[in-house]
Amino acid sequence: MHSVKTALITGGSRGVGLRIARELAQQGYAIALLVRSDREAAQRAVAQLQQQGADAAFWQVDITDRHAVQQVLAQVVRTLGTPCLLVNNAGATAAAPLLELSDEQWQQVLHTQLTGTFVISVETVRLMAPGGVIINIAGASAHRCYPNAGAFGPSKAGVVNLTAQMSIEWASRGIRVCGISPGPIRDPDSHWATDEPELAREVARLPLQRPVSGDEVARSVAFLASDAAASFTGQMLILDSGGLNTWYMTEQEAR
């Protein structure tokens, strides 16, 4: 019999996903991490969470494979308990303009971010008790266009619409579904950390002229999962330093 609340996090072994896991561990959750390939990063993440005093474990699974997901969820329930929170953070990207995107790149991004979110959510919600919460991590590119985001943006826009659809269909089950759309993120494990000039250009276009931190995203997840957000469902929390309210500036205008 498990009495601790359990959070299931996809893509939680590094970067923003790991920060979400740490924040939820501080909130008293047992943490189940689902990863696709990087077992070493997952092992390190679990060790860090256990050092915080949290029950934590990871499972390697392709979240687009329904049968594999069903098997892993059964193991999660036996090991840590039935999830009351699912955070869909797994992602993929292919930075290229549309004319240069291959079919394989397009399919990989959409399959991971949209199909994966669909499959893991459907199978998890079958197990969730009333009061459960699903939080989908989308992105600012779901709401506006960015250069070289020809696959990433449309896939995240699909996640936004899927969030609304889930919230309507599963409200009768007592399940809330929300999402977060972060803008440019500065995080040691993120893409931006290795391309500071690009980050600076993006940030210069934002009204607040500051990037989002991984910890801000993590705290927002904790808020949406809490009783303080009991009336939130179907909404996207946009963390982008005001970028959605502006037009896209050219590089020259941002200088």
Q: What profile does the largest beta sheet have? A: 7 strands, parallel
**What structural category do the secondary elements indicate?**
alpha/beta
Under the CATH scheme, the architecture is: 3-Layer(aba) Sandwich
Spell out the helices and strands N to C: EHEHEHEHEHEEHEHEH
Taken as a percent bin, the fraction of beta residues is 15-25%
E-strand count: 9
Per DSSP, the total helix count is 8
Mean pLDDT score, rounded? Answer: 88
Taking pLDDT < 50 over at least 5 consecutive residues as the criterion, the unreliable ranges are: 249-255
CATH T-level fold name: Rossmann fold
Mind telling me the CATH class? Alpha Beta
How many whole angstroms does the radius of gyration measure? 18 Å
Form type: globular
CATH superfamily: NAD(P)-binding Rossmann-like Domain
State the end-to-end distance. 59 Å
The helix content is: 40-55%
Strand order, sheet with most strands: 3-2-1-4-5-6-9
Number of domains: 1
Entry summary:
The chain has 255 residues and is of the alpha/beta class.
What brief labels describe this structure?
255 residues; alpha/beta; Rossmann fold; 8 helices; 42% helix; 16% strand; globular; disordered C terminus
SSE blueprint:
Blueprint: E1 6-10, H1 15-26, E2 30-35, H2 39-51, E3 56-60, H3 66-80, E4 83-88, H4 103-125, E5 133-137, H5 152-170, E6 176-182, E7 185-186, H6 196-204, E8 212-213, H7 214-225, E9 236-239, H8 251-254
Parallel strand pairs: 1-2, 1-4, 2-3, 4-5, 5-6, 6-9, 7-8
Helix pairs in contact: 1-7, 3-4, 4-5
